[in-house]
Amino acid sequence: MEQVVYRIRRFDGRKEFWQEYRFAHEANKTVLWGLLKIKETVDPSLAFVAACRSAVCGACAVRVNGEAMLACETPLDALLERFGATLVLEPLGNFPVIRDLVVDWEPKAARLAEAKPWLVPREEFSAEAGCRQSQAEFRRINAQTNCILCGACASECNKLTTGDDDFYEPFVYTKAGKFVADSRDGAAADHLRPVLARGLWKCVHCQECVTKCPKRVAPAEDIAALRRASIRLGLADNQGTRHARAFAGDITKTGRLNETTMAVKTDGLLKSATRLPFALRLLRRGKLNPFHFPAPVEGIDGVRAIVKAAKEAKE
Predict the structure, then answer these.
(1) Can you tell me the distance from the alpha carbon of 36 to that of 177, in angstroms, rounded to the nearest whole number?
(2) Angle 31-41/76-83 helices, nearest 10 degrees?
(3) How many other CB atoms are found less than 10 A from the CB of residue 85?
């Protein structure tokens, strides 16, 4: 391969346009090297952000052929082998774009602050004694400390793509989860209430935040841990908790869901009644049978044993 082509989605503050750049291939370089090559030798007007060049600051995250990644640590040759000589570069998804590959973090930072991502020391700690914790307690939050706020998880979040009114960026849940799980923190409910109000139970489990995180943080697992913590702390009067309990109850009882009663158990009779027109349409098309009460599946004892083991498992 003699030449590499970067096809870049640019934005000048008023309109979007695509521009192609060609440069000579050099072995063992990174995606960021290509961007710097263009800026230094072809087009100084191309805007992007980079700082540490060591996968520590997270500033250089971009989308390459539809996947968010850190430009500074991603080997260019690996992408060329996978996608061919032309790579399509775009700014992170689900972010407002300032210019070219530069996205606006200010609104994201404001949303992150709502979850109070800072330590609220327990009352027994003092300025003199400090906030100590054991190695075992630190290991419980060690994974979340690796989050560098690069935005890759938010870029690829399918729930966020549908709108951010009722869902936070995945890194917000990770940051909140870190302090909820921190043995030194004395305000778990203060971290939980904001994320409960903003979609904690609305994650669609696509796992894109997990597979695209360059630091191997798992926001989807943090969301699951926050859900368990909210129930444990009694913050359970919400649709998500009721749905989870109804789901677990059906599985334990018969090994399958009863969709006829699921809505009533989740939303209550009054709210479910507002969906009567929808239910009638399902009835007319044979998608819903109110008289169907599923019998236990074959092997239900095994299913119940799995549920029991899950309940007894330590977090």
Answers:
(1) 36
(2) 100
(3) 12
Percentage helix, strand, coil for the chain under 3-state DSSP, each rounded to 5:
45, 15, 40
Per DSSP bridges, beta strands 97-99 and 61-64 are unpaired
pLDDT, tens digit, 9 for 90 and up, residues 30-63: 999 999 999 999 999 999 999 999 999 999 999 9
Task: State the helix-helix crossing angle for 239-254 and 300-312, rounded to 10 degrees.
Answer: 140
Q: Which residue has the tokens 């994201």?
A: 108
Q: Which residue, among 261, 248, 266, 245, has the nearest Cα to 304 in the 3D structure?
A: 248
Question: How would you class 15 by CB atoms within 10 Å of its CB: exposed for 0-12, middle for 13-18, buried for 19 or more?
Answer: exposed
| Bridge partner residues of 88 (DSSP) | 7
Confidence of residue 309 (pLDDT cuts 50, 70, 90): very high
Predicted structure pTM score: 0.90
The answer to whether the beta carbons of residues 63 and 89 sit under 8 Å apart is: yes
**What contacts 214, CB < 8 A, 6 or more positions away?**
55, 61, 69, 70, 73, 150, 152
Q: Which two tokens stand for residue 141?
A: 């939050």
The residues with which 24 forms a beta bridge, in sequence order, are 3
Which amino acid type is present at position 116? K
